[in-house]
Specification:
The protein is α+β, with helices and mostly antiparallel strands. The strands form 2 sheets. Strands 1, 2, 3, 4, 5 and 6 form a 6-stranded antiparallel beta sheet that branches. A two-stranded antiparallel ribbon has the order 7-8. Helix 3 packs antiparallel against helix 4. The termini are far apart.
Length: 323
């Protein structure tokens, strides 16, 4: 038995079924997850309220924090703090895109506005803060001695990456002037960085962010846009078609989606990998090839999506169009 269960008023599950991504125990249809965390009690309460809402909507596989015997969600054992969460598996044969649209629609019905995990309408401020963070990192790498050829190449890329980020912020400012909205522009529960979260058996509540639904669509599209086929691939088209059948985007939504794709999150991720020494110098060439694909897909984005830029008054970026 794990000692954390001594702190909870539940029947102690005795069957451990997994170690990853978290230590997991099972008791009949209930699964319990011991999740190391650094969130505050206030955040944990919001996650509990959100997860409870989703359970009521039938999404019982969203992990829900459990209050301990002291009616608190955070439990400290030794030097570590944990959330104990539970979830119930559910049979689900929907496609990923339909699941995502349904997940967002369930989030539209959430009756509160979270305060601690709310990023809706805050992208500009968050992006500016990210630029400031990485400009500080750039100065450190620029001054680092001894310098290697790999490091010099990386430093040479920084102005390009920061320029892309600043361009995305300028574009976002113009997008925010748009007035054509629809139902899909409400805030909902999204994922910090959506990949394939809804294809997993459980949805981790501690990864949820209250934001515009296109946050998730953009991160899914970002994955496709780093390949040669990009938005023309069967998987990409199938995903978008399925989602838009359930939840069409407004003109504002399309522009916001494009703004998020302009912001080079994947390039900042690459810098993070360099910082943690998880890539080799050979990755620079691959990085450049991927970004070449990505820029081409940005250039043809509205065309590939079948959107007439004249009708939507979409803003074309000269540095992309002129290439």
């Amino acid at each position: 038995m794990h000692p954390i269960f001594l702190h909870y008023p539940i029947q102690v599950p005795t069957k451990q079924v997994s170690e990853k991504p978290y230590m997991t125990f099972a008791d009949q249809s209930y699964y319990y997850f011991i999740i190391p965390t650094n969130v505050t009690e206030r955040v944990a309460l919001e996650l509990y309220t959100i997860a409870t809402h989703y359970h009521q909507q039938g999404w019982t596989n969203v992990t829900c924090p459990i209050p301990n015997v002291h009616n608190q969600f955070l439990t400290t054992i030794g030097k570590d703090t944990y959330l104990l969460c539970y979830g119930i598996q559910r049979e689900d044969d929907r496609t990923e895109s339909i699941k995502l649209a349904d997940f967002h629609q369930a989030g539209f019905r959430y009756p509160y506005q979270p305060s601690t995990i709310n990023s809706y309408g805050s992208w500009k401020d968050l992006w500016i803060a990210k630029i400031d963070q990485y400009e500080g990192m750039f100065k450190q790498l620029y001054q680092k001695r001894p310098s290697t050829p790999f490091l010099r190449e990386l430093v040479d890329m920084f102005p390009y990456i920061i320029g892309l980020a600043e361009n995305a912020i300028q574009y976002l400012y113009l997008v925010e002037q748009e007035t054509q909205f629809n139902e899909s522009d409400q805030p909902s529960m999204t994922f910090g960085r959506y990949q394939r979260d809804l294809l997993d058996e459980f949805i981790w509540s501690d990864r949820l962010i209250y934001d515009h639904p296109v946050r998730d669509i953009a991160e899914k599209m970002r994955y496709f846009m780093q390949t040669s086929e990009g938005l023309s691939s069967h998987d990409s088209q199938q995903f978008l078609h399925g989602y838009l059948t359930k939840l069409p985007l407004s003109i504002f939504g399309w522009k916001l989606l494009y703004a998020r794709l302009l912001f080079p999150i994947h390039l900042f991720d690459f810098i993070d990998q360099v910082q943690h020494d998880t890539i080799s110098s050979a990755s620079i060439e691959e990085f450049i090839n991927i970004q070449t694909y990505y820029e081409e897909h940005l250039r043809t984005f509205f065309y590939k999506m079948g959107i007439d830029v004249r009708e939507t008054n979409s803003i074309q970026l000269d540095w992309l169009v002129d290439r």
